[in-house]
Design brief:
The protein is mainly β. The chain contains no helices and 27 strands. The chain has strands at residues 49-50, 59-60, 65-69, 75-78, 88-93, 103-106, 119-121, 127-132, 139-145, 159-161, 164-168, 171-176, 180-186, 195-201, 220-223, 241-242, 246-251, 275-277, 280-282, 332-334, 337-339, 362-364, 371-373, 381-382, 429-430, 434-435, 445-451. Strands 11, 12, 14, 15, 16 and 27 form a six-stranded antiparallel β-sheet that branches. It starts with 48 loop residues before the first strand and ends with a strand. The mean pLDDT is 88.
Length: 454
């Protein structure tokens, strides 16, 4: 092998010297020293200079440096604010107590592993070498030691706005009583939170007129995150929803109209409107059937059938699992008279007997206080023989009672309670004024809950 011995190499022109050609290897023998006290050496491999003293307090790191951390207390290492692609640095727990006194890598304005979040090193004797890969992913782990995945724990929580926001312990609750947007700015991580619990209740149906059926309650759909401590309803789907950062339009259904009384005729109640959050749609409750054998309408819960033997409307329409509601009760002749069926509720079918009480709603503590929603509307009953009677009660959870039959004036039907999905009661009969109007269903509600801290 030929040898060339010189004391100094200078460029013939300019200020650069090329040692070898592209694709060739420059060999530096073992034991040789490559000393560059003031010059800048580029493209010669990885070179990290270690700080000789242990770091015991917060500091800002520099590229091409290695740092030994004294974890007798927690230390925050702020990463370089304007890194270049290929910049790297090493951080080591030198005293073996990072599990108790974490090392925080503050991102310094750049991403860490693709997230706009700081990272935490919390395993004793952990050491990591991180490299800046560019603006898309930022700082990424190149090598690590004495740690288990994730090497750098990036704990993020869902962050969002919209609706009326309340707080219960470590959880935020967004309540929507009308249409609006749920705006998620951070989707969170599994170590913090990355799903939301939800309750979506549609609007209740309106009650039918004179001896009509009560309206059906709005569909009731709930999904609870497994780690969420509140008490759910029996209709809980068993898991929450992931919410990537986006704007989610919220639709809160309006209640169905009560059946009007055009002239001396009768009318069925109108169905409630759907409530929607993301992929979850709760169906509006079915309207109650009118007198003279008109069936209740289908819906989240079905409307009660009208007097003279009409069938109740089917609940859980369209079908989902778990079911979002129940069927309405059928109407029929009572001894000496007629009655309309009770509307279906979230927790029970409408009553077909005498009295025709609306189906019960269900309780959920998603707002941290148990609230019952989704009651069916009560039917109206005519006993015959001119005897006055009260309409049947609405189901628990906002269902309105049916109107009375006589005397003059008859007691009017009661509307479903707003923002419960409760249904409207059926109209009664006034001996002077004739058939009475059914009452409107109550509007729905959307409630979203998630962990925002620990």
């Amino acid at each position: 092998m030929a040898e060339l011995k010189v004391d100094k190499i200078l460029p013939a022109t300019g200020s650069s010297i090329a040692l070898g050609e592209s694709g060739k290897t420059i060999l530096i023998p073992s034991g040789a020293t490559l000393d560059a006290p003031t010059a800048t050496l580029t493209n010669i491999g990885e070179r990290i200079e270690y700080c000789s003293s242990l770091k015991t307090s917060p500091f800002t790191a520099s590229a091409s440096k290695g740092y030994f951390i004294n974890t007798g207390s927690a230390v925050t290492v702020t990463l370089p604010s304007s890194p270049s692609v290929g910049d790297q640095l090493i951080v080591i727990d030198a005293t073996g107590n990072a599990s108790s006194n974490n090392i925080t890598l503050a991102r310094g304005g750049s991403k860490i592993k693709g997230l706009c979040a700081c990272a935490t090193l919390k395993t004793d004797r952990v050491g990591v070498r991180i490299v800046y890969s560019g603006s898309s992913q930022g700082w990424v782990t190149a090598t690590s030691g004495n740690d288990t995945p994730p090497v750098m724990d990036q704990t993020l929580y869902v962050t969002a706005t919209g609706g009326t926001v309340t707080t219960s312990g470590d959880y935020k609750i967004h309540t929507f009583n009308s249409d609006a947007n749920f705006v998620v700015s951070c989707a969170g991580t599994s170590s913090g939170s990355n799903k939301v619990s939800y309750l979506v209740v549609a609007a209740g149906g309106g009650g039918g007129t004179g001896y009509g059926g009560g309206g059906g309650a709005g569909g009731f759909r709930e999904g609870k995150c497994s780690s969420d401590p509140y008490t759910d309803s029996p209709l809980d789907a068993g898991s929450g929803l992931s919410v990537p950062a986006a704007t989610y339009p919220i639709t809160v259904g309006g209640g169905g109209a009560g059946g009007p009384t055009p002239g001396s005729g009768t009318s069925s109640g109108g169905s409630g409107n759907n409530s929607i959050f993301s992929s979850i749609t709760a169906a509006g409750g079915g309207g109650g059937g009118r007198n003279c054998g008109v069936a209740g309408l289908t819906g989240g819960s079905g409307g009660g059938g009208g007097g003279a033997g009409a069938a109740g409307g089917a609940g859980n329409t369209p079908p989902v699992s778990p079911p979002q509601g129940n069927s309405g009760g059928s109407g029929g002749p009572a001894p000496g008279g007629y009655y309309g069926g009770g509307g279906g509720g979230a927790g029970a079918v409408g009553n077909s007997g005498n009295p025709s009480i609306g189906g019960a709603g269900l309780a959920s503590s998603i707002t941290s206080a148990a609230v019952t929603r989704g009651g069916g509307g009560g039917g109206s009953h005519y006993p015959g023989g001119g005897r006055p009677t009260s309409g049947a009660a609405g189901g628990s959870g906002g269902g309105g009672a049916g109107g009375s039959v006589g005397p003059n004036p008859a007691t009017p039907a009661v509307a479903g309670t707003a923002n419960t999905g409760g249904a409207g009661g059926a109209g009664g009969f006034n001996p002077v004024g004739g058939h009475q109007s059914g009452a409107a269903g109550g509007s729905g509600v959307v409630i979203i809950r998630y962990k925002f801290q620990n």
